[in-house]
Each structure stands twice: as structure tokens, then as C-alpha cells.
Amino acid sequence: MFDEPLAFSSDQFSGLARVFPLPNLVMFPHVMQAVHIFEPRYRELLEEAVEDDRMIALGVHAPGWQKDYEGRPPLRSTACLCRVASHQRTPEGTYNVLLLGVRRLNLITELPPSRPFRVFKAEIMEEYEPEQAPPGTATQLQQKLLAAFKQAMPKMPAAYDQLDQLLGSQVTLGMLADIVSYTLDLDVEWKMRLLGECDVFRRAQVLVEALAGRPAAGQRRPFPPQFSIN
Predict the structure, then answer these.
(1) DSSP H/E element including 203
(2) Coil, strand or helix: which one is 17?
(3) Can you give the CATH number for the domain in which 87 is found?
């Protein structure tokens, strides 16, 4: 069960983002991610978020972060703003948390270190579809992306059925691109490029190109991922 309703609008964001940085997980809007929070500084981050606006930004460490992990290593400027969907405290005092990605976020300036965790001034990056694009572009790109995704996936008829059901629930092109971007095990650079692209048509085209080039490694995430339309 979720702790609270998950609907989100951009005016709910205060402009300050509590950042939970990770080395290689790139979060996207419209999907859910389970995380286990055990470090004291991030437990405090979660507790403050739950008492306040339930917002956490999942950030990504920039290359070279290993040299200063205990401090404040550089972060990539694009992050994903997430709402705490549910959280559970373990007997050890750690937390199992379910996060829902809600918006792309540009991290602008880090505030002075007054708390154990990091806080940034940030702004929401709203996605858009180019107005000058020919009619039917979104539908054409959605079909191309779907075909490329099916070709890249293992032969899993059950997953195809789930994907068709997903598309039947009025999923937009931007949502589909984010779900596919999260699901496939593309490398971090590809995923950061996709996360940072607010032009929905361009994002879908980049993803089609990525699928054609197959710049993937390791195991793909289970499909479909948990996601929410909001």
C-alpha cells in the first residue's frame, strides 16, 4: 500500500532538492524504484522528506566519485525528482523505500553543508513535443520505438502482451520512452543523455538509435517495471 496519493504537479516542488546520489542507477519519471537506505545521513534525509513534502531527488555521481564518497563528490547536473510512495523502517533502523519518479530535475547550486545530506537549488525540466513537427509524428515514433524495443527484448510473448496492454492504457510517447529507458540496461552515459533530453520526439529517436546500436551490457530489468501515470 502507498503511504499517500501519488499525484504530482510541478508547483508542489519548493525549488530545493534533497539529493540521494547513486553511482550507476539512473532513475526516470513514470517508474518506481525500490531502495534500501542504511547510511545515517540518508536515513536523516528520508525522515525529513517524509515529514515535509515527501520529495527526494535521485542523483548520479560524476566520474571519479570514489575518491571522495564519504564527502561531497561531484554529481551530474541532471537528476530525477521522486515522491516517496511508501517506506518501512526495519528493526535495525534502516529503511525500505519505494520511490516514484515524477519529473526531470536540473541541479543548479549546492547549498552550504548545514545538514549531513546534500541539498541543491534546482529547477524542474518540463518535457515538450515540438510544435513544428508534422502531424502524426508522435504516433510514428511510438510505433518505431515499440518495434525496436520488442526486437531488443528476449523472446518473451508474455512481456509483449503486457506491453500491448500498457500501450492500451493511453501511455504517451514520453512515458513510453522513459519506461523503455529505465527497463533496458543501457550504460550510464546513454541513460543520462535520455534523462537530460526534454524534447520528447528527440528522446524517442535517440532511444531508437540506442536500441539499434545495442549499447547494452548485462541483464535487462524485468518488464514491465512498476510505473504510475500521474
Answers:
(1) helix 200-213
(2) strand
(3) 2.30.130.40
> What's the rounded Cα separation, in Å, for the pair 134 and 48?
46
Q: What is the pLDDT along the chain (230 residues), one digit of tens a residue?
A: 566 666 888 889 999 999 999 988 999 999 999 999 999 999 999 999 999 999 999 999 988 655 665 667 889 999 999 999 999 999 999 999 999 999 999 999 999 988 899 999 999 999 999 988 898 899 899 989 888 887 777 655 555 666 666 655 578 899 999 998 998 878 899 899 999 999 999 999 999 988 887 543 333 454 445 444 33
Asked if residue 43 belongs to a domain, the reply is yes
Q: Residue 227 and residue 230: Cα distance in Å, rounded?
A: 10
Which residue shows C-alpha cell 516517496? 84
Q: Are residues 163 and 192 in the same domain?
A: yes
Report the residue count for the chain: 230
Judge whether 227 lies within some domain: no
Contact status, residue 17 vs residue 117, Cβ threshold 8 Å: no
Domain count, the chain: 2
115: closest CA among 57, 42, 50? 42
Q: What residues contact residue 82 under an 8 Å CB cut-off, 6+ apart?
A: 27, 33, 55, 56, 57, 58, 99, 100, 101, 102
Q: Which domain holds residue 85?
A: 10-125
Residues 84 and 18 both lie in one domain: yes
Distance CA 111, CA 107 (A): 11
Is there a single domain that holds both residue 209 and residue 163?
Answer: yes
105's CB contacts (< 8 A; 6+ apart) are: 17, 57, 78, 79, 80, 81, 122, 123, 124, 125
